[in-house]
């Protein structure tokens, strides 16, 4: 099982890199990605519809003229996801899910949190961990994909370790903030080592708005 997953990941990454090399990234592609990043930023910072318009323009530009680029990015991202999931979880007792569009919201009632890996092309993730029921000492959550809007609320009593990255976008974790290009935040709560219940969050998107609040 482990060898098969590793071989699948290598094949996906190799296929994506091959397509990407054959069709080089142009200025037009970069401009489209900047439209998408600016759209996500405007959606988060302003109540008007400007952000949605910018996001739509960027997505239309990319998909209409750069199908091979999108395909290569998706293949590479999915391959990296398989590799990271296997590395992050100590055994095979975890839930793994892949989807094109994902809207995962847990904020209304108590919910059970288990070792999980999720990958999506476009994902909207909202988790309120003050409502979670944990059945183990340490739980690992892997969230990865191409475009992501991630909001996670973590109560102070819960020990949390965060590794978050976004090629384009912004990351907010506690008092740490990174905005722009090639963002990465590694953060750990002061009570992580001594806490009876711990959560490890591994969040990575190519274009993302990642917000992890400690309350």
Task: Give the topology.
Layout: H1 2-22, H2 27-45, H3 50-65, H4 67-88, E1 95-106, E2 111-113, E3 116-128, E4 132-134, E5 138-154, E6 159-173, E7 176-188, E8 198-214
Parallel strand pairs: 1-3, 2-4, 3-5, 5-8, 6-8
Antiparallel strand pairs: 6-7
InterPro entries: LiaF-like_C (IPR024425), LiaF_C (IPR047793), LiaF_TM (IPR054331)
Domain LiaF transmembrane: 8-89
Domain Cell wall-active antibiotics response LiaF-like C-terminal: 105-212
Task: Outline the structure in words.
The protein is an alpha/beta fold and 215 residues long. It folds into two domains: 76 residues, no CATH class; 126 residues, no CATH class. The chain is built from four helices and eight strands, in the order H-H-H-H-E-E-E-E-E-E-E-E. It has a six-stranded mixed sheet with strand order 1-3-5-8-6-7. A hairpin with a 2-residue loop joins strand 6 and strand 7. Helix 1 runs antiparallel to helix 4 and helix 2 runs antiparallel to helix 3. The longest helix has 22 residues. The termini are far apart. The relative contact order is 0.15. The mean pLDDT is 80. Keywords: Membrane, Transmembrane, Transmembrane helix.
The proportion of strand residues reads: 35-45%
In angstroms, what is the radius of gyration? 18 Å
Largest sheet data: 6 strands, mixed
Strand order of the largest sheet: 1-3-5-8-6-7
Distance between the termini: 40 Å
Number of H- or I-type helical stretches: 4
The strand count comes to 8
Helix content: 25-40%
Low-confidence stretches: none
General form: globular
Tally of distinct domains: 2
Give helix and strand order, one letter per element, not per position: HHHHEEEEEEEE
Helix vs. strand class: alpha/beta
Transmembrane segments: 12-41, 53-82
Keywords: Membrane, Transmembrane, Transmembrane helix
Pfam families: LiaF-like_C, LiaF-TM
Domain Cell wall-active antibiotics response LiaF-like C-terminal: 105-212
């Amino acid at each position: 099982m482990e060898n098969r997953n590793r071989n699948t990941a290598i094949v996906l990454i190799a296929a994506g890199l091959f397509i990407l090399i054959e069709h080089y990234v142009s200025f037009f592609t970069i401009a489209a990605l900047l439209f998408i990043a600016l759209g996500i930023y405007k959606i988060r910072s302003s109540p008007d519809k400007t952000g949605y318009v910018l996001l739509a323009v960027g997505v239309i530009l990319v998909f209409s003229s750069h199908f091979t680029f999108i395909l290569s990015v998706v293949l590479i991202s999915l391959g990296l996801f398989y590799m990271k999931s296997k590395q992050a979880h100590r055994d095979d007792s975890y839930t793994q899910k892949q989807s094109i569009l994902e809207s995962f919201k847990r904020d209304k009632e108590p919910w059970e949190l288990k070792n999980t890996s999720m990958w999506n092309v476009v994902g909207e993730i909202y988790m309120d961990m003050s409502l979670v029921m944990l059945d183990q000492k340490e739980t690992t959550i892997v969230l990865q994909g191409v475009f992501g809007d991630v909001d996670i609320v973590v109560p102070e009593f819960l020990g949390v370790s965060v590794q978050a990255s976004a090629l384009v976008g912004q990351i907010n974790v506690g008092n740490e903030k990174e905005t722009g290009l090639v963002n990465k935040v590694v953060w750990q709560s002061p009570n992580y080592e001594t806490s009876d219940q711990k959560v490890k969050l591994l969040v990575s998107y190519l274009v993302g708005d990642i917000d992890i609040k400690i309350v």
